[in-house]
TrEMBL record:
Similarity remark: Belongs to the iron/ascorbate-dependent oxidoreductase family.
InterPro entries reported in the protein's UniProt record: DUF2086 (IPR018655), Oxoglu/Fe-dep_dioxygenase_dom (IPR005123)
Location of the Fe2OG dioxygenase domain: 127-243
Lineage of the organism: Bacteria, Pseudomonadati, Pseudomonadota, Betaproteobacteria, Burkholderiales
One Gene Ontology MF term: oxidoreductase activity
Entry keywords, A to Z: Iron, Metal-binding, Oxidoreductase
Protein name: 2OG-Fe(II) oxygenase
Species: Variovorax terrae
Length: 244
């Protein structure tokens, strides 16, 4: 059963247009992977939220000024599907992350597999797993933020929508903002159940916008979720660096 699921996931990722995903990340700081999970996989993951076991901590957003709603960080070992996703997505994204760092003049390059990168995190004291599951109800929202947990930060992360808009909830759009010398911009990313969005954790490179000037400028990115108008919304987040 696990082998079949792993094989299906590999085929799904192989079918993604990674060249176009890279172009979208370069241009907008995000890219959608449609239909990454099936409805059955989404429902099974969402059902994990009500369980007590398998988590290292639960966060109520309002207590920390993060918004409204709550989320739980998974403990190791991760649920098999999330562990497979994390390891399968990382090597697809590492070349983009390495190219971005070169463009930004950041003297950090990422290894080709997740195990080697996590070893780097753990040697620096970042040993706590960061994949999480989020639950929002009516009136809940997530403030714009960045998921930075220590010295070692992988510049891309993934969120997968587990609920179906229009059926399970209304509102609750995934929102990204960018801040640069050229101003501020907001981007609403439309997702359906099972869709994933890959997006910038902190900053991305962009061509200089000054007339006649070549070079690269830094664009700071943040993400959040707009207010849930009705129903309940579940998502999972895959962050590739671990936390202190």
């Amino acid at each position: 059963m696990k082998a079949a699921a792993s094989h299906d996931l590999a085929l799904t990722l192989e079918a993604c247009d990674w060249a176009n995903i890279g172009r979208s990340l370069d241009a907008h700081g995000n890219a959608v992977l449609p239909g990454l999970l099936t409805a059955e996989q989404c429902d099974a993951l969402a059902a994990l939220y009500c369980r007590e076991e398998g988590y290292r901590t639960r966060i109520v957003m309002a207590r920390h000024g993060f918004g409204r709603g709550e989320y739980k960080y998974f403990a190791y070992p991760l649920p098999p599907l999330l562990d497979q996703l994390r390891h399968a997505l990382y090597p697809r994204l590492a070349p983009i992350a390495n190219r971005w760092n070169l463009q930004l003049g950041i003297d950090v390059q990422y290894p080709g597999d997740l195990a080697a990168f996590l070893q780097r995190c753990h040697q620096a004291g970042q040993t706590r797993p960061t994949p999480l599951i989020l639950q929002y109800g009516e009136g809940d929202y997530n403030c714009l933020h960045q998921d930075l947990y220590g010295e070692h930060v992988f510049p891309l992360q993934v969120v997968i929508l587990l609920s179906e808009p229009g059926r399970d909830f209304s509102g609750g759009e995934f929102v990204m903002t960018e801040i640069s010398a050229q101003g501020r911009r907001a981007d609403v990313v439309a997702l359906r159940q099972g869709d994933a969005v890959v997006f910038t954790v902190n900053q991305r490179p962009a061509p200089s916008s000054r007339p006649g000037r070549r070079g690269t400028r830094k664009v700071a990115m943040r993400h959040g979720v707009s207010r849930i108008r009705s129903g309940q919304r579940h998502t999972v987040g895959l962050i590739f660096h671990d936390a202190r």
